[in-house]
């Protein structure tokens, strides 16, 4: 029989205290991935412009971020913080364009998993500044990641093309996804690398959590401004090609992308990074996203092969694990030497290049 003292210690354990945050992280990622599937369904069925759709979502998102964070209030921001945030806005704008086009051409499953290609930045930083003895392990991790993306491009996660599917006919509502070449997968992979780069820049510029949120509002606003001329050019070209063009509208696709795909996911990822020490391109984050993808693939009745998807996800997770092994070993050695020194852990999370 457990004593009251032991029960109170179990309730005060870090794992028990982090359970609500883990639930919030799972729900937040589920809603974000739901918005991705809604966006893909809208773009594929209506043929709407990716740039115009993203720009229409970023305009209200930037207004909401500015209203929530009010970067003009409080302690004045220095030029060393504002200028990199504006540059980060240009990177964010390019990321949204590439990711949107990759989503439309490759499908939601491939586009979401390709975002984890940002682990390449961790490999690059560890190779340049780490120990050479881990080089072969990181090369093996990169090879495993490349193999996972290659298998995804060949349709292993699709019931129609997967070698692990034994059905002659597949009852699905969406047959737009098909076998792709690695050249087509390059677009979402580059978007994933840019996504990791913008996270690294934001982590370098903002040393405090509140400052990070204020600068993120500036970044999203700058990204909206950089997207404005591209969106107008795309609108003009589309208007001249078809004089009777009508812009289709879907309230759920726009609202879910704004609320879940841009705003909510930022706060959810911030909580996961600050409280759960879970960076985006990590096997733990991939496991959460994989479970959400399985749910959405079943709900939307996509051309989906569960065994093929699990195999591709395991290979990708192994590649990320091997590619980022040096950072974990350093973190573990510091925690082992002085477990009470939280400052060293925080400095390590800031100084390394987690993606």
UniProtKB/TrEMBL annotation:
InterPro entries on file: EmrE-like (IPR037185)
Region (Disordered) location: 332-355
Keywords, sorted A to Z: Membrane, Transmembrane, Transmembrane helix
Protein name (Swiss-Prot/TrEMBL): EamA domain-containing protein
Keyword set includes RNA-binding: no
Subcellular location, record wording: Membrane
TM stretches of this protein: 46-68, 80-99, 111-129, 141-159, 179-197, 217-237, 249-268, 280-300, 306-324
Chief site of localization: membrane
Signal peptide residues on this chain, from the entry's feature table: none
